[in-house]
Specification:
Blueprint (H helix, E strand, L loop, with lengths): L12 H6 L3 H7 L4 E5 L9 E5 L10 H12 L4 E7 L8 H20 L3 E6 L4 H7 L2 E7 L4 H13 L4 E4 L17 H15 L48 H15 L3 H4 L12 H5 L5 H13 L5 H24 L11 H9 L11 H5 L6 H13 L4 H14 L3 H15 L6 H12 L20 H5 L4 H7 L34 H11 L13
Parallel strand pairs: 2-3, 2-5, 3-4, 5-6
Antiparallel strand pairs: 1-6
Helix pairs in contact: 8-11, 11-12, 12-18, 15-20, 16-17, 16-18, 17-18, 17-21
Bound molecules: flavin-adenine dinucleotide.
The site of flavin-adenine dinucleotide (FAD) has 28 residues, from α10, α12, α16 and α18.
């Protein structure tokens, strides 16, 4: 590095050849880090940039920690950059509102430790920002979903400075496994072997150099609507007040859960009429909180006798076992969000049962409005539409019923993804795609008993689940029988915008059983591409 004596790192002979400081090489070799563009840091640069996308937090963020560590090694400050884009796949006003709340916490927490934080709105670009602030190196986070991964690849091709990404939102870096698993119990022993290495106190790396630019770079204010002027943004799904976005709200909720509710988790987690689960999924999805923070808080609660070891274990099985299984599924399955990902046995059995009579058939519009003859299902749909979240037990039932009522399994998969991504705050997430694949096409599950429509795919009936919890109480809490999900807006009016995704619903050609799997799966997938910078 030129003109910098303070903090200068000695180079080994190998590192001297590449001009990459040796300690930086060591940092880049960690299993969580992926070097997407290697080369020596820019010589006349003055800062390290953390391109924040998925891990929207300052605390317990391995991607930010890597940026701080690299910057400390190079005796430079860190600036965090966030780019708001209008075309994040399937995001609507509800999601942008939650996102904006989270960014305010990032701004506050970044300032508290001397990090720069700049938010810009498209058409601004990351590349222009890197040039403007003279970044030596850019470090980002990871997201296994298709479009965000495409942005990262595009950027890696275009950049002239080094670009690394860090797998910041899982406890065990996905690279350790390099594969997906068919069932949780196949994954469990591999996970258990790795957990002692990763379920440890997060590094608390403090920046040694405060970011003090001579002239503050242009940035948008977080007190204004960050989505202002986005003409194509879907504003028909409004914000909800059931959740407040951000690290501060997430940590508060975590405290309440581990101190008071975790002890009942085993008994209450499958009771949708009770507040028996942590409701942290929106915060995990937006990266407002890291899974390691949650896991450590759970372990501490157990150690202090606030909850039983069994409650802690059951919770960590969801948080790490199921969640990281879902991440591996999405990372290694290109068709994670459509019927093509079906388990081979499920595909066969569902095709065999495709012609079975269906007692009810509903259109997408009827489902979206919660207008079925099944009050329990309607209540679940209302919970999702009005609060942006649905209980896990109801999510399973909700998706299974869509399989029963849609024209065919491929359409059922598409409809479930569409509704889930549209209304859930935690939608557009590997967990959602894995959950829908589990419910509809037997992924991450085993064959069950042969039944009409479902074949060998595990069925769920209202009668069977109502024996396990007070379904009437749940229906009452969601507004009672006969309440429509939509009181003020008409989702049907937006039917046109669905046309590319759901041909049959909007009067397009019905795919028919012979060719439906590939035709429906391809309809609309990847057709709309968004800009390579992500929010
Ligand atoms: C059809 C279907 C759709 C789903 N869609 C989503 C989705 O869009 N986004 C989402 O985050 N989860 C989804 N899930 C998984 C699960 O329902 C939610 O993660 C959970 O209900 C969130 O509530 P919680 O935070 O209170 O969970 P808790 O019971 O408190 O669990 C803690 C955390 O563990 C993880 N977790 C719990 N259950 C699962 C699971 N079955 N699979 C993977 N991770 C799990 C979540 O990150 C959750 O926040 C879906 C499941 C199904 C069956």
């Amino acid at each position: 590095m030129q003109n910098r004596s303070r903090g200068r790192i000695p180079l080994s002979s190998a590192a001297r050849e590449t001009q990459i400081p040796e300690e930086l090489v060591r940092l880049a070799a960690q299993p969580r880090v992926r070097v997407r563009r290697g080369r020596a840091p820019r010589e006349d640069g003055v800062c390290v940039v953390y391109w924040m996308q998925r891990a929207m937090r300052i605390v317990d963020n391995p991607a930010l920690d890597a940026a701080i560590e690299a910057a400390n090694l190079l005796a430079l400050p860190v600036v965090v950059y966030f780019q708001v884009i209008p075309n994040y796949p399937n995001a609507n006003l509800r999601h942008y509102h939650f996102l904006q709340q989270g960014l305010r916490d990032v701004a506050e927490d970044a300032a508290a430790i001397g990090l720069g934080f700049v938010v810009r709105r498209a058409p601004a670009t990351l590349e222009a920002f890197l040039e403007e602030v003279k970044a030596v190196l850019v470090i980002g986070d990871e997201n296994p979903c298709r479009e965000p991964e495409r942005w990262r690849r595009t950027l890696a091709r275009r950049l002239r400075i080094p670009y690394w990404t860090v797998d910041a939102d899982v406890v065990v870096p996905s690279r350790i496994f390099e594969r997906s698993f068919v069932l949780l119990h196949h994954f469990r022993p591999h996970l258990k072997a790795e957990l002692p290495n990763y379920l440890v106190a997060p590094a608390r790396i403090k920046p040694l150099h405060t970011w003090k630019p001579r002239k503050a770079p242009a940035a948008i204010s977080l007190s204004e609507d960050i989505a202002k002027g986005f003409k194509t943004l879907d504003r028909s799904v409004g914000p909800v007040d059931s959740f407040t976005g951000g690290t501060h709200a997430a940590l508060k909720r975590l405290g309440e859960f581990v101190n008071a509710e975790l002890k009942e988790y085993v008994e209450t987690r499958n009771h949708p009429e009770m507040r028996g689960t942590s409701r942290l999924s929106p915060y995990l999805h937006f990266g407002n909180i890291g899974p390691l923070t949650i896991a450590r808080a759970v372990e501490k609660a157990v150690a202090r006798g606030k909850a039983s070891a069994m409650a802690g274990e059951r919770y960590l099985e969801q948080l790490i076992g199921w969640r990281e299984l879902a991440v591996l599924f999405v990372r290694h399955e290109p068709n994670y969000d459509n019927w093509e990902c079906a388990a081979p046995w499920a595909r066969k059995t569902l095709i065999e049962h495709a012609g079975d009579p269906r007692p009810h058939r509903y259109t997408l519009k009827q489902l979206e409005r919660g207008e079925t003859a099944d009050e329990l299902w309607n209540a679940a749909q209302r919970e999702m539409v009005s609060s942006g979240w649905m209980h896990n037990y109801m999510r399973m039932y909700w998706a299974k019923k869509i399989l029963e009522w849609a024209p065919d399994p491929a359409t059922a998969f598409d409809w479930a993804v569409l509704l889930n991504d549209r209304y859930q705050l935690d939608g557009r997430d590997p967990n959602g795609y894995a959950g829908i694949a589990w419910a509809i096409v037997g992924k991450l599950d085993r064959p069950w008993f042969n039944r009409p429509i479902f074949g060998l795919v595990r069925p769920m009936t209202g009668t069977s689940i109502s024996r396990k919890f007070d379904s009437q109480d749940y229906i009452r809490q969601q507004g009672g029988p006969g309440t429509l999900a939509f009181k003020t807006s008409d989702p049907g009016a937006e039917c046109d915008s669905y046309q590319s995704l759901v041909l049959t619903e909007c009067g397009g050609p019905s795919a028919g059983m012979a060719g439906y799997p590939t035709r429906l799966a391809r309809a609309g997938r990847g057709a709309k591409r968004s800009a390579p910078e992500g929010s």
